Structure formats: structure tokens, C-alpha cells
TrEMBL record:
This is Thioredoxin domain-containing protein. GO terms for molecular function: protein disulfide isomerase activity. It comes from Dissophora globulifera. One of its GO terms (cellular component) is endoplasmic reticulum. PROSITE patterns: THIOREDOXIN_1, THIOREDOXIN_2.
Amino acid sequence: MQGKHIFFSGIAMLLTLAASAVAEGVHALTPETFDSVIESKRFDVREYPTIKSFSDGISSSPEDYAGEWEILSPKSFATKKSGVKAFGRNSAVVEVLTDRNFRQKVGKDGRAYFVEFYAPWCPHCKALAPTWEKVGRNFYKDNNVVIAKVDATKETKTAERYNVDGYPTIIYFDADGNDQEYEGERGEDDFVEFVNDLAGTQRPAGGRRSREAGRNKKLHKIV
């Protein structure tokens, strides 16, 4: 096991996805595989989830990961610690907005923005994260719609401007910057349908294009 970087976490799916983005020198271990690979040894795990990096094999002292709980963040951590460059697409499907770039983009670049205002500690926000990622994939590289998120605990000026006092708060901004708070169900289909209705897009859940995409309805009636 010398010379390999080992990462252990109770969140098997997240860490496996992160480790899958780098080469074979990085291993993601789950509770089921940890003992068989590293033997039974305790590493002062006091809270969950915990991610540790053993940069010089199991005999080295581990370093705790303390970043954001997103696929790209542990992936970047693994790449940094191992020195192995990640492969595959590294573009985030959910755009991160700050106080600064929010003013520069929303209502200014001709696109609609569907924005989640969240708090990193919020359990409802954590539960929503996988669904929000799927919504982002549905509209990834769409010319008219951007799925985005704002850390309301850091980007306080933007959060205060739109009276964000609960998490998550989800707001749709049209191309002119007019805002409308989303108050519907929080399923992938619900979000996609809401955006389609307001933005005039035709994205079904799953990232495919609908049968109506590119069709001129008036011409179709004539034909």
C-alpha cells in the first residue's frame, strides 16, 4: 500500500465518484472495504462523515479533509494530495455565484438564472444537493438558462437583497433580472417543468431534449 493515497469516508457514493475522477493511485475506501485493505486500525474518527488522506501510505500520518461536500471538492483534494491529475470533464453543472459575479451576470448577460440560496450546515440543503445537481445537468450548456447556487452565509449582500431568511430559498431570475421565488415541490421534474414554463425551454428531466425542441408549432399545424 506504500506510495498510494488512501481516502476513507462514510459517504461511499460521494468519495467513490471523486476518486473515480483520478488515476489508479487514489483509492476510495468504504466501511465495508476499510478493514480488509488497511487492517483494523483506528484513526480518531469522532464525527461523520470523515475523510482522511494518507499521502505516503498507511504508515504515514493522515490529513483530514475539511472542504465542501461536493463531488468536485473531494476530487480536487484528492488530486492535490496525490499529485495525480484528474481526468474527465471538470466543469461544474451548477454555477457558483458570489456577491460580485451575481451583479455582473444576473439580469446582465441575457440568460435566466435559477438560483438556490443555501447554508452549508443546513440539512435540507444537503438533502437537496443531489437533485439540484441533476437539474444542473438538465440545463448544462443551455444558451438561455443557468442553474446556480449562492452560499447565503458568505454572500450576505445578495442574500439580504432578496430577503433570504430560510434555507434553501430558490429564486428564478429572468433575463432582465426580475425575480420570482419558487414555492413548489422539490423534485427534479418539478424544477425542470417550472423553468421550462418560465424560460420557454423544452428540457425534460434527464438532460434529453423533448420532442418539441426545435419545432415551430405554427408551421407544424400547417403541415
